[in-house]
Specification:
Elements (H helix, E strand, L loop, with lengths): L1 H99 L67 H13 L3 H14 L6 H21 L3 H21 L1
Helix pairs in contact: 1-5, 2-3, 3-4, 4-5
């Protein structure tokens, strides 16, 4: 009886040991899986942190680049403002010099006193064998060309001269009327047409100046509307047109 009891106890002990071994193996396996999972999580965390660091560095570089661009643009705007002020002062000086000259409207005919009187007809030859016809009066000399005005020729309000006759003063006046009405693109086109048809006319410098003023007015309108890009582009165009006044006239 004791042997049977002892045998049963030994078998129970073996079963307990076997179960303990299985539990230990299971615990080790679970520990290994937990360690692996923890390692994977740590690896993913490191990768995510590295990616976030790279993104932060890229954003920092982009911000630095944007700051540099803004500083460059600010310097460019200051330079353009300085150049525009210098050109404005120069054009005002030129306008004063031109205004000081004698201004005569091209369409105004010279007075009768200013016209040269025609010479007297030549006397006939004395007692020729055959009668000699008297020489007709000489054609009066052409009146002197008036000085081109620096300001537009006054015209009836609202009347815009036609360009069909191709008269320089009419084309110039039509373009200036457009400028005075705020139709700056039309004024620019009109003054450019004047310069194309009459490049050597005395009003060429004034026409080129008003082209620059028209672009400057367009730039001011864009700036007031909050359109900085268009304002900068128009201002640069105005600077180029004012340079042409200095270079060519």
């Amino acid at each position: 009886m004791s042997d049977v009891t002892g045998m049963a106890t030994y078998q129970d002990l073996l079963e307990v040991r076997t179960e303990v071994a299985l539990v230990q193996q299971s615990a080790q396996r679970m520990k290994a899986e937990a360690d692996a999972a923890r390692a994977q999580m740590e690896q993913r965390e490191r990768e995510r942190a590295a990616q976030e660091n790279r993104q932060l560095q890229e954003m920092s570089q982009r911000l630095d680049a944007l700051a540099t661009t803004l500083n460059t643009l600010g310097g460019r705007v200051d330079e353009l403002n300085t150049r525009a002020e210098a050109l404005a002062a120069r054009t005002e000086e030129l306008a004063r010099q031109l205004s000081a000259a004698t201004v005569v409207a091209p369409s105004t005919p010279p007075s009768a006193a200013a016209r040269p009187s025609p010479p007297a007809p030549a006397a006939p030859a004395p007692a020729p064998p055959a009668p000699v016809a008297s020489v007709p009066p000489a054609t009066p000399a052409a009146p002197p060309t008036p000085v081109a005005p620096t300001e537009p020729i006054e015209a009836t309000p609202g009347a815009r001269p036609s360009t069909n006759a191709l008269r320089p003063a009419d084309i110039y006046q039509a373009a200036y009327i457009d400028f005075s009405k705020g139709s700056y693109p039309l004024a620019i086109a009109g003054f450019r047409e004047f310069l194309r048809r009459f490049p050597d006319h005395a009003l060429g410098g004034a026409a080129q100046y008003w082209i620059g003023e028209a672009h400057f007015a367009i730039a001011r309108g864009h700036a007031n509307a909050g359109q900085a890009d268009k304002a900068t582009e128009a201002l640069e165009q105005a600077v180029q047109e004012f340079r042409k006044v200095q270079a060519n006239y």
